[in-house]
Each structure stands twice: as structure tokens, then as C-alpha cells.
Amino acid sequence: MFVIGISGSRCAGKDTFYQFLYQLNKRFKRYAFADALKYDLHPLIKTQFNIDILNINPRDKEVIRPILISYGSAWRYYDKDHWVKKVYTSIQNEYVYDKNIVPVITDLRYENELNFLREKFGQNFLHIHINRINNIEPTPEEMESISFIKDLADVNITWGNNNQQEMKNIVTDVYRKYQHLLF
User: Fold this and answer.
1) Domain harbouring 116, CATH code
2) pTM above 0.85?
3) How large is the angle between the packed helices 58-78 and 82-97, nearest 10 degrees?
4) pLDDT digit string (tens) for 70-90?
């Protein structure tokens, strides 16, 4: 199994990259550490704020972002690999039933996550880092974690602001370059 991990600050285009990748080949399957976190918090956020965290608009997401960050950080305090273990288990469980999937983790942010994935998948892991020109300012936490792991990426991408065609071209180039490893 080959696995792709995408890093970058918020709104850098990690999910956009995945969407274009999926258009090229339906075997790619999206995973995110934040999805496990959202499933945990969904009942609380829905009850207390009447916000559906699984289907959220950007304004509401910014309102509850501090809750998500705090919850994720609390788990990392007790087990730094909590979220990566959850996603790893999901990938392993799905791979049992569908050996054709190529997992793409769209929110790689911390060194321990990168180390865990490299340890588990070795040469079958590709780390892509995305930097977006004129992006919103990263949080202090993002600055600290992202600035370190971007230098460890196998592929570094910089793209313009809101230029979807540019991103589509970049994804196509990356896909062509690494296609022989993926399938």
C-alpha cells in the first residue's frame, strides 16, 4: 500500500489538491486526523451551538476552531500519536476490504505524525507540502509545526491565490511523476 500525506497551513489547498488528485484516479481515498476529532465532538457542538461540524461553513468553522484545537491538543498531551493511530487503524481496516485504495491524508501537521507514517509505510509514503501565496496568516501553532515539517517534504508546492487551473496543473504534474509508485 502506498500512502500520501499532505501538509500545509489552513486554507493552503490541501483538500483542493486531493480533489484534483481524485479526479485523476478514483482509487485515491481521503483521510484526515481532524475527521476523527470532528466525529468525537459532533454531538457536543451540535447540542451546544447548533452547528453541524461535519457540514460546516467557513464562518462557523472559525468560531469553533478553538474548541477543535483545544480538544486535539488535550489528546496529544496524553498520547501524541492518538490521532495518527486512529487514522492508521481506519486505513488498515479499509485496506483489508479494498486493496486498490491509495490513502491520502489531507492534514499532516506535526512531526510525530510524519514520523509515525514514515515508520509504518517507509518508502511507500510520499509527503507533499503545500504553500499558498497570499494565504491567510497561519496560527502561531501552525507556524511552529508547519515550518519544521515543510523542510522534510518529498515534494514542495507553491501555488497562487484562488487559481484553480494552476493547482490542477500542479496536481497533474505530481501525479505523472509519482504514478509508477502509486499503483
Assistant:
1) 3.40.50.300
2) yes
3) 100
4) 999 999 999 999 999 999 999
